[in-house]
């Protein structure tokens, strides 16, 4: 924020000049010392100021390191409101959201959307191309068939049911018109979901609000999506990588963040266990079934949106393809725990990690 600089003009001062030959003007009296600050006026030392609310199906938390508590709380409230606004555009749990309107108009007509929704869908299409269709927004067609949310009753779909829905999955059926800023699904019954990418975009939206308000030292988190700005006093923000088979809060590595996103996508948050096999919410669009081969992917990236897009996509494609994509993307670094409990670390991140323990070996 720019503040105007006002020029303060003092009233003219007439200096008396001694007219007698040996007369001198008296020396000015020394200025009185400034009063010592009392406890009420002393500067408040910086501290972590926190706010949170439920949004995007998880707990959204913002921490700001600052000395002006009132200003920080106001900025946190604005940032959380921005996350809620973006959720309102992209959720499928509200019939009036832009994504829900796109789905309702599938096979009929294009739907005009906001710049934010259009940008998220357009970039998701690029990742679909990169992963040869493994990552695909049209897996929204499986909604209600795979039940991992509030509808989770422990049941699994039959292979025939999966095949029937899979016929509606094809990211190339998402038609974008940049000039009109519209989105259309070619066939009736098709659905998209932004559940794998919208949280990262919302985190970046909150980051922009905080920076506009003048704050540079903060953390914004929505579930497994996080961005750390600046640092916490004289040290960096420190975060941990969750053990995908350990209890909540048990970590396998620590890492310091410097104006980076830190996102994790894993098979351990929303899942069903049947006959010793884990069925989780991240679907491989090529099969219609939960992705196999990786337990968790944690990425450090320039933005939460980039990290959110890529961690989901890399978990689906498997270790060899995921590591090759990381090698070709130097500003994104990652830690992958595969299905055999082997840890894979991209070269640029190895020296930055502090190992805490090996991941737990369990189904």
Q: Fraction of residues in helices?
A: 25-40%
Major β-sheet strand ordering: 1-2-6-7-10-13-14-15
Work out the helix count: 7
Task: Please report the distance between the alpha carbons of the first and last residues.
Answer: 53 Å
The H-and-E topology, N to C, reads as EEHHEHHEEHEEEEEEEEHHEEE
Report the mean per-residue pLDDT as an integer.
89
Overview of the molecule:
The chain is of the alpha+beta class and 363 residues long. 25% of the residues lie in helices and 24% in strands. It is built from seven helices and 16 strands. The chain has helices at 69-90, 98-104, 115-130, 159-166, 198-212, 304-317, 319-327, and strands spanning 47-55, 58-66, 111-112, 174-177, 182-185, 218-222, 225-229, 237-242, 251-257, 260-266, 271-274, 277-280, 294-301, 333-338, 343-345, 353-355. An eight-stranded antiparallel β-sheet has the order 1-2-6-7-10-13-14-15. A three-stranded antiparallel β-sheet has the order 3-5-4, covered by helices on one side. Strands 8-9-16 form a three-stranded antiparallel β-sheet, with no helix packed on it. Helix 1 (69-90) runs antiparallel to helix 5 (198-212) and helix 6 (304-317) runs antiparallel to helix 7 (319-327). The longest helix has 22 residues, at 69-90. The radius of gyration is 27 Å and the shape is globular.
Layout of secondary structure:
Layout (H helix, E strand, L loop, with lengths): L46 E9 L2 E9 L2 H22 L7 H7 L6 E2 L2 H16 L28 H8 L7 E4 L4 E4 L12 H15 L5 E5 L2 E5 L7 E6 L8 E7 L2 E7 L4 E4 L2 E4 L13 E8 L2 H14 L1 H9 L5 E6 L4 E3 L7 E3 L8
Helix pairs in contact: 1-5, 5-6, 6-7
């Amino acid at each position: 924020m720019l503040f105007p600089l006002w020029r303060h003009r003092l009233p003219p001062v007439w200096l008396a000049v001694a007219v007698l030959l040996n007369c001198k003007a008296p020396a000015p009296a020394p200025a009185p010392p400034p009063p010592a600050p009392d406890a009420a006026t002393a500067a408040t030392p910086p501290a972590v100021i926190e706010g949170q609310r439920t949004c995007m199906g998880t707990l959204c938390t913002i921490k700001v390191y600052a000395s002006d508590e009132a200003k920080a709380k106001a900025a946190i409230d604005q940032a959380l409101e921005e996350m809620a606004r973006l959720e309102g555009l992209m959720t499928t749990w509200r019939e009036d959201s832009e994504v829900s309107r796109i789905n309702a108009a599938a096979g009929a007509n294009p739907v005009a959307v906001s710049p934010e929704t259009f940008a998220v869908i357009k970039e998701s299409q690029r990742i679909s191309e990169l992963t040869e269709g493994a990552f695909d927004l049209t897996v929204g067609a499986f909604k209600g068939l795979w039940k991992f949310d509030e509808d989770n009753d422990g049941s699994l779909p039959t292979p025939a049911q999966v095949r029937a829905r899979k016929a509606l999955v094809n990211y190339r059926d998402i038609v974008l018109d940049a000039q009109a800023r519209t989105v259309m699904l070619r066939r009736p019954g098709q659905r998209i979901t932004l559940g794998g990418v919208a949280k990262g975009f919302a985190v970046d939206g909150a980051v922009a609000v905080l920076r506009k308000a003048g704050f540079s030292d903060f953390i914004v988190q929505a579930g497994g999506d996080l961005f750390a700005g600046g640092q916490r006093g004289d040290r960096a923000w420190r975060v941990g990588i969750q053990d995908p088979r350990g209890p909540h809060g048990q970590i396998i590595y620590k890492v310091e963040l410097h104006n980076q996103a830190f996102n994790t996508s894993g098979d351990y948050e929303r899942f069903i266990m049947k006959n010793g096999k884990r069925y989780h919410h991240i679907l491989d669009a090529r099969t219609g079934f939960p992705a196999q081969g990786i337990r968790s992917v944690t990425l450090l990236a320039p933005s939460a949106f980039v990290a959110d897009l890529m961690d989901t996509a890399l978990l689906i494609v498997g270790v060899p393809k995921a590591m090759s994509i990381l090698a070709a993307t130097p500003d994104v670094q990652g830690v992958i725990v595969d299905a055999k409990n082997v840890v894979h670390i991209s070269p640029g991140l190895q020296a930055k990690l502090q190992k805490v323990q090996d991941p737990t070996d369990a189904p």
